[in-house]
From TrEMBL, chain A:
It is a single-pass membrane protein. Keywords: Cell membrane, Membrane, Transcription, Transcription regulation, Transmembrane, Transmembrane helix. The keyword Transcription applies. This is Regulator of SigK. It comes from Actinoplanes cyaneus. Pfam families: RskA_C (PF10099), zf-HC2 (PF13490). Residues 4-36 form the Putative zinc-finger domain. GO terms for molecular function: sigma factor antagonist activity. It comes from the Bacteria. The chain crosses the membrane at residues 93-114. GO terms for biological process: regulation of translation. InterPro entries: Anti-sigma-K/W_factor, Anti_sigma_zinc_sf, RskA_C, Znf_put.
């Protein structure tokens, strides 16, 4: 995927890629001036396709939107991005993995906002999500970050990124499908051979990004399939088991 | 048609010449408006809304088919534009492109969510309905834009056109497009890119808002 990533420029602009490809391509863009130029130009062309879809929105949309913005706090400008010098393959892999975790965090937010129809609830939880996302970002920015990725049994992947300095880590689970039989994913850490529940996903939920405190002092981060609502001890087999060393 | 003519007549003759000019005389500039929006300027946001909402709504409606759903997603997108206006980076492209990138991605997310849930009901007749719009000038420039886009799409090879439009208007991923067209994935990926390049060259320095 990385080798011919440049060929992905068109699909990327058309949003015809999946989250992992998008994260990888975003990463590629941050290191490639020429590609940024090309993507910018292709995007202007793609946008013109939207011009062909002119359709008058219902007048109440205008009122609703103007109403809503009066209640919506604006984000501050982004701080200048630190330039990451390409420094060897390992560092780059770490950065790609971190970008994947970040992208998954973003996707989670969007999915949540879309699922929830009630705007006020969505705003409250979006604020919580943003706070969580800031924690995720701060962990991912730590200088001693270690990143591991493993395939999930049944399709998908689990990525963990942890920092001893922060005594915390981030786990990202992106499954191709929910577990069979109405079961759900549950996250675990293992501390001194004892499993600790780190959260249960909802029925049908296939992705999550979560901060786990004290992750570096655990020996494992694992994922199992459990009955809805979760279990007190993990049910074998582990669908993923990432070792922390 | 009749309704439209009546509406024009009602506006009176004083403003007609302006409205019949294909290119609006002093079009509000999206980049400028977005900069003001980033500073919390609500009237500027209202003007930006008027400039982009018909296309945002039209695009989302075309992709999602369901008008009620399209309205909901369009609202999310436009509020998101307000919320994140200060994050817009002019170096990465025009304000209009930024807005439609948000709109398209949000609509694709919704399309994919529905595909995953296998709940997507394919409805025939995806074409957007021509509704009389408040401003005749806007409508004229909209129609010109539509003609030019159509002409440039006709300029593409069949495979380029299908690859680009299935992804952009239907929200399909490139592997899905490849399957639909019975074409290798790598080919579709390439056609998306060279199709867009050709589209860019054809549209040239056109009337982008």
């Amino acid at each position: 995927m990385i080798a011919d990533i440049h060929a992905l420029a068109g699909a990327y602009v058309l949003d015809a890629v999946d989250d992992l490809e998008r994260a990888a391509f975003d990463r590629h863009l941050s290191e490639c001036d020429a590609c940024r130029g090309e993507v910018g130009e292709l995007r202007e062309a793609a946008v013109r396709l939207a011009g062909g879809t002119w359709s008058v929105p219902p007048p109440r949309l205008r009122d609703n939107v103007l109403d809503e913005i009066r209640k919506t706090r604006q984000l501050p400008p982004r701080a200048a991005k630190p330039v990451v010098a390409p420094a060897g393959r390992r560092r780059r892999l770490v950065a790609v993995a971190a970008a994947v975790v970040l992208a998954a965090a973003g996707a989670g937010t969007a999915a949540y906002q879309i699922q929830d129809q009630r705007v006020r609830d969505a705003q409250a939880s979006a604020a919580a999500t943003r706070a969580e996302q800031e924690r995720v970002n701060s962990i991912l920015a730590s200088p001693d970050l270690t990143v591991r990725t493993q395939q999930l049994d049944g399709g998908g992947r689990v990525t963990i990124a942890y920092s001893r300095l922060r005594d915390a880590g981030v786990v990202s689970l992106i499954a191709d499908a929910p577990p069979t039989g109405g079961r759900v994913f549950q996250l675990w850490t293992v501390h001194a051979t004892k499993p600790v529940d780190e959260g249960v996903l909802a029925v049908g939920q296939t992705s999550v990004v979560k901060v786990i405190d004290h992750m570096p002092s655990a020996s494992d981060v694992g994922v199992t399939a459990e009955p809805a609502g979760g279990s007190r001890v993990p049910t074998d087999p582990m669908l993923a088991d990432l070792k922390i060393v | 048609m009749q309704r439209r003519a009546d509406a024009m007549a009602e506006r009176g003759t004083g403003r007609r010449p302006d409205h019949l000019t294909p290119v609006p005389t002093a079009p509000p500039d999206a980049d400028e408006l977005l900069r003001a929006v980033a500073r919390g300027d609500e009237p500027a946001f209202a003007r930006l809304y008027d400039l982009v909402a018909p296309r945002v709504y039209g695009l989302i409606r075309r992709m999602l088919k369901d008008p009620a759903l399209a309205e909901e997603v369009a609202q999310e997108v436009l509020v998101e534009v307000w919320r994140t206006a200060a994050r817009f980076d002019p170096a990465s492209g025009s304000a209009t492109a930024w807005v439609f990138t948000i709109a398209h991605r949000r609509a694709v997310d919704r399309v994919r969510a529905e595909q995953t849930a296998a709940a997507r009901t394919m409805r025939a007749g995806a074409a957007a309905i021509d509704t009389p719009y408040d401003s005749v000038a806007d409508e004229v420039s909209g129609r010109l834009e539509r003609q030019q886009v159509r002409r440039c799409l006709d300029d593409l090879t069949e495979l380029q056109r299908q690859s680009v439009t299935l992804a952009y208007y239907q929200g399909y991923s490139y592997p899905q497009v490849a399957e639909l067209l019975g074409t290798p994935v790598a080919t579709v990926k390439t056609r998306m890119r060279d199709g867009l390049i050709r589209l860019r060259d054809c549209l040239g320095a056109g009337v982008a808002a």
